[in-house]
Design brief:
The complex is a heterodimer of chains A (109) and B (113). Chain A has 109 residues and is mainly β. Chain A contains no helices and eleven strands. The chains are: A mainly beta (109), B mainly beta (113).
Chain lengths: 109, 113
């Protein structure tokens, strides 16, 4: 079945780049997503990538997709305190979207 | 403004009582979803509905029920059969156009005393 794996925690110094990694299992997924969740709130779509793309850049966010290894990453440049949140990787799967357990990003001063 | 609303934000209930969580969307999305979130567990799918008057069980449907009488509304009832109902509940809807992205409501935190 489908599964999405990501590490649970990441600590980064303010101003550095953050890289959050994810692996997925369903090679037929059409889209892969990154969502952000701030404390006590719902999930907010950050960005998505179509499965036939290798890279997508959107301001401070860069998504890299290695389809051969089924590996997805999200790079946040110049990490700020407002980036502190849980980041979810997700893959499309027919009538559902499969989410990872989320990576909690902690910003060090 | 288009979006998804969930009410209330916080809900307290006594053990043994059924409780209904509201979810409304004005995005004209056909599909709607309910998730449960516990600390460190990520999102777990409870029920989902692709179209009015039809819905399917997700991974943890036991102790929950839903209805989908209108396109805009997908209420979730947490019944007394749910053994550990205290959690954060998230509703989402999904467009059928590409990319088929899910959009989330702000969530309801249910505490059973």
């Amino acid at each position: 079945g489908e599964d999405v794996e990501q590490s649970l925690f990441l600590s980064v110094r303010e101003g550095d780049s953050s890289v959050i990694n994810c692996t997925y299992t369903d090679s037929s997924s059409t889209y892969l997503y990154w969502y952000k969740q701030e404390p006590g709130a719902g999930l907010q779509l950050l960005t998505y990538i179509f499965s036939n793309m290798d890279m997508k850049q959107d301001q401070r966010l860069t998504v890299l997709l290695n389809k051969k290894d089924k590996h997805l990453s999200l790079r946040i440049a110049d990490t700020q305190t407002g980036d502190s949140a849980i980041y979810f990787c997700a893959e499309s799967a027919y009538d559902k979207i499969i989410f990872g357990k989320g990576t909690r990003l902690h910003i060090l001063p | 403004d288009g979006g998804i609303t969930q009410s209330p934000k916080y809900l307290f209930r006594k053990e043994g009582q059924n409780v209904t969580l509201s979810c409304e969307q004005n995005l004209n999305h056909d599909a709607m979803y309910w998730y449960r979130q516990d600390p460190g567990q990520g999102l777990r799918l409870i029920y989902y509905s692709q179209i009015v008057n039809d819905f399917q069980k997700g991974d943890i449907a036991e102790g929950y029920s839903v209805s989908r009488e209108k396109k805009e509304s997908f209420p979730l009832t947490v019944t007394s059969a749910q053994k550990n109902p205290t959690a954060f509940y998230l509703c989402a809807s999904k467009t059928s156009r590409r990319p088929d992205t899910q959009y989330f409501g702000p969530g309801t935190r249910l505490t059973v005393l």
